Amino acid sequence: MSKKKPGGGSTIALNKKAKHEFYLEERFEAGVALEGWEVKSLREGKISFMDSYVLMKDGEAFLFGCHISPLPTVSTHFVPDPTRTRKLLLHRKELGRIFGAIAKQQLTCVPLALYWKNGVVKCEIALAKGKKLHDKRATEKERDWDREKHRVLKTG
Questions:
Q1: Can the keyword Iron be found in this entry's annotation (predicted)?
Q2: Phi/psi zone of residue 75: left (φ > 0), alpha (ψ -120 to 50 degrees), beta?
Q3: Which CATH number fits domain 11-131: 2.40.280.10, 3.20.20.60, 3.40.190.10, 3.40.309.10?
Q4: pLDDT digits (tens, 9 = 90+) for 38-79
Q5: Which residues pair with 128 in a beta bridge?
Q6: What pTM value is reported for the model?
Q7: How far apart are the C-alpha atoms of 92 and 133, rounded to whole Å?
């Protein structure tokens, strides 16, 4: 179920809609501040990136809308919040670059993937620009054409 990344980690979840909905400009790797039950749920793969986004607030980055389903073994006296806001851990220079791009170039910041790296959960985020409907169609047409070219070259 999990795929190996070139850096030695394994992928927990991918945001497959991001490449379809946005032009991805610049990528960053961020740590994620998690609670213990969330880490256990991530090991089981109980995560959904649907409708999640990154918001810059007070000079910090936060992951909104990411749903981590709690395991049934979570303590009975603790009520977990599956869609709580999670803080993303980035260097100050990276935060400044992201904040500047969002403010000046009117880009948005989207999460692309969640993966393990040296036993720590990392989130890959990207600065992105939204695609229009005709751009999505052109991308799909280009992908189909590339697939057809490979078929023709393969068969000779």
A1: no
A2: beta
A3: 2.40.280.10
A4: 888 888 888 888 888 888 888 899 999 888 888 877 766 677
A5: 24, 108
A6: 0.75
A7: 35
